[in-house]
């Protein structure tokens, strides 16, 4: 996961934890019967759990999509670079072979001239 994804997940977890703590404290100090307060806390905790699952699913889907996009882009770029390198290699290989043959002929001519 990218650094941005980790930051987003951390911020999301912090916000949910803060919201849960605020709701619980508010309910505990409300002038209601303990049984009713516990019921409200339980319901709110379930709501927060559902919200967290939904947000996790959304964030997870976004991360998967971003990974897929980055992966595709990387594969396309790597393929393009490989083709460019191969084309350059083929082009210059023929030139080098030709130049090498010319140098070999020149050396052979010089050697033959020295032997005379």
From TrEMBL:
One Pfam family hit: YtxH
Domain of life of the native organism: Bacteria
Membrane-traversing stretches: 12-30
InterPro entries the UniProt entry points to: Desiccation-related_membrane, YtxH
Keywords attached to this entry: Membrane, Transmembrane, Transmembrane helix
Tagged with keyword Amino-acid biosynthesis: no
Gene3D superfamilies named among the record's database cross-references: Apolipoprotein
Keyword Kinase: no
Alphabetized PANTHER family for the sequence: GENERAL STRESS PROTEIN
Name of the protein in its database record: Gas vesicle protein
Organism: Chryseobacterium kwangjuense
């Amino acid at each position: 996961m990218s650094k941005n994804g980790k930051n987003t997940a951390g911020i999301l977890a912090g916000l949910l934890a803060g919201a849960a703590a605020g709701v619980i404290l508010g309910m505990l100090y409300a002038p209601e019967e303990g049984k009713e307060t516990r019921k409200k806390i339980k319901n709110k905790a379930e709501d927060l759990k559902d919200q967290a699952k939904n947000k996790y699913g959304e964030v997870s889907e976004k991360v998967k999509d971003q990974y897929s996009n980055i992966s595709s882009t990387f594969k396309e770029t790597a393929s393009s670079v490989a083709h460019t390198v191969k084309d350059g290699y083929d082009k210059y290989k023929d030139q080098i072979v030709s130049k090498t043959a010319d140098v070999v002929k020149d050396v052979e001519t010089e050697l033959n001239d020295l032997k005379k």
